[in-house]
Each structure stands twice: as C-alpha cells, then as structure tokens.
C-alpha cells in the first residue's frame, strides 16, 4: 500500500475502543499515519499537552460519535482543540448509532480527501 503522509487523529470514548481499533486498522492499511491514544500517549507525561500536540500535528480529526462520547470530557477537550487548529473541511464525525458520516456535528459538504472518505465509508460498512 502506498504510504500517505497525512495524519489522522482518532477521537473516541474508551467504551468504544473496539470501533476505534477497526478504524485505525483500516486507516493504516490505506497508508494513513494515525494519532491514536493507545499508541501515542505516554501515561507518565502531561496528557493534555500530548493530546494538544497530537492534534496540532494532525491533518485530519475523526470523532467516533456515540452516547459514550457525548459524556466524555476528554472528547470535549479534543474537539475544542481540533476546531481551533484544523480547517473545518478536515473535521469528521462518524455516528456509530446511525452508521453514517455525521452532518449534525461538522459540515460534510466540503470534503476534499477522497482517500480518507473511502476509508471512512469502508469503516461504516463494517458497523
């Protein structure tokens, strides 16, 4: 698979980790770099700083939306950083209940990375 230099920050509730694992695997198989807490966080260091740096160094933000994520203060923090540092067309939310790219969180009309959209569609098909 051709390597892609674009980095995708995956945001999810830990209660939804099995879904995040599937998405991260699909992204990697398609050549994307990922920022995924399980692989990138060092628990001995400042978590807020690491997450902020991870988001600032990412090209895309993908939020897995569920009832669990709605209650997470970490996701609220990550989303705020993403909205402040990434172009709006780079923000994506996948609704795990509706099994679709969510238009009620981020505008989905201006998606430019066809390769990322293909991976997201593959993920949704697996839900």
From TrEMBL:
One of its GO terms (biological process) is signal transduction. InterPro entries: TIR_dom, Toll_tir_struct_dom_sf. It comes from the Bacteria. Residues 4-127 form the TIR domain. PROSITE patterns: TIR. This is TIR domain-containing protein. It comes from Paenibacillus radicis.
């Amino acid at each position: 698979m051709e390597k892609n230099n674009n980095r995708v920050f995956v945001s999810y509730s830990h209660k939804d980790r099995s879904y995040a694992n599937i998405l991260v695997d699909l992204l990697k198989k398609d050549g994307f770099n990922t920022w995924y807490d399980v692989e990138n966080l060092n628990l001995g260091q400042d978590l807020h700083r690491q997450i902020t740096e991870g988001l600032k160094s990412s090209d895309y933000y993908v939020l897995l939306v569920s009832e669990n994520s709605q209650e997470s203060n970490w996701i609220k923090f990550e989303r705020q950083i993403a909205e402040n540092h990434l172009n709006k067309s780079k923000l994506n939310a996948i609704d795990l209940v509706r099994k679709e790219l969510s238009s009620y969180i981020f505008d989905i009309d201006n998606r430019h990375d066809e390769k990322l959209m293909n991976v997201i569609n593959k993920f949704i098909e697996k839900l």
